[in-house]
Amino acid sequence: MFKRLLGDRPKNAVSREKTITEEELLKQLDMTKLPEHVAIIMDGNGRWATRRGAPRSFGHRAGVNALREIVKLSVELKLKYLTVYAFSTENWKRPHEEVNILMSLLVEYLNKEIDKLCANNVRIHPMGILSELPEKAREAVDMAIRRSNNNSGLVFNVALNYGGRSELLMAVQEIGQKIISGYIKVEDINDQVIADHLYTAGQPDPDLLIRPSGDYRVSNFLLWQLAYTELWLTDTMWPDFGRKELLQALLDFQLRERRFGGLLHN
């Protein structure tokens, strides 16, 4: 069952029937009205595994498989930006063994997928405090940046050791240093100046945020950028989130009337 943040979906919303096929969903999709930037909080791996009597590592590996399919479909649909929440600044509080597994999966994913990603013209853009990642993870991230740097297709933002508050703090500190150095004046600070000092500098804000697993919070993710982002929430755990779920989210997005705080004008 798919849920929105508030209220019921419109009566003309796309069918939620589980029997609907991917091909049918694709036929309903208006390729001229796709969101430019989709963000996803990849949540529910551990709970998915626990419900199956399996270790949490089993869920994280299944989550990587789900990510692979979502990136593939994003390329096929020619989306411009895809941002995924892979590891937060708070995730270090998890058991040491689980953190090690997550870092190992990151290294494995980048090493295994880099050729395919580059073949599909995907540019990998990690965002977060990368200097605090383990050495092997940093090396894999550096390799992925280097290998994909000249690609001009989908920009694949991977949030690693990322927190929305730490991102804003970093931006404030950098702007403060520029004020001290005389590069900018306090009165020159506006929305654009702040945006230019975020990890997503030069990118549009997300049009659509997808949150699997049944939770209703943004979890310190893209706090500045999500100001007018449309939210799509589902009870489906991330390992079960597939191509059909992404297509349904996109179809639902196309039914939204985006006002950005103003009124619609006919």
Keyphrases for this structure?
266 residues; 7 strands; alpha/beta; disordered N terminus; 40% helix; 7-stranded mixed beta sheet; single chain; Undecaprenyl pyrophosphate synthetase; 14% strand
User: In the CATH hierarchy, what is the superfamily of the domain at 34-163 and 205-253?
Assistant: Decaprenyl diphosphate synthase-like
Fold-level CATH name of the domain at 34-163 and 205-253: Undecaprenyl pyrophosphate synthetase
Order of helices and strands: EHEHHEHEHEHHEEH
Shape: globular
* Number of helical elements: 8
The span between the termini is: 33 Å
**Class of the domain at 34-163 and 205-253 in CATH?**
Alpha Beta
Low-confidence stretches: 1-15
Instruction: Look at the helices and sheets and give the structural class.
Output: alpha/beta
Sequence of strands across the biggest β-sheet: 1-7-6-2-3-5-4
Q: In total, how many beta strands? A: 7
CATH architecture of the domain at 34-163 and 205-253: 3-Layer(aba) Sandwich
Rg calculated over all Cα atoms: 19 Å
Largest sheet: 7 strands, mixed
Explain what you see.
This protein has 266 residues and is α/β, with parallel strands linked by helices. It has a domain at 34-163 and 205-253: Undecaprenyl pyrophosphate synthetase, CATH 3.40.1180.10. 40% of the residues lie in helices and 14% in strands. The protein has 8 helices and 7 strands. Helix 1 packs parallel to helix 8 and helix 4 (96-119) runs parallel beside helix 5 (135-148). The chain is globular.
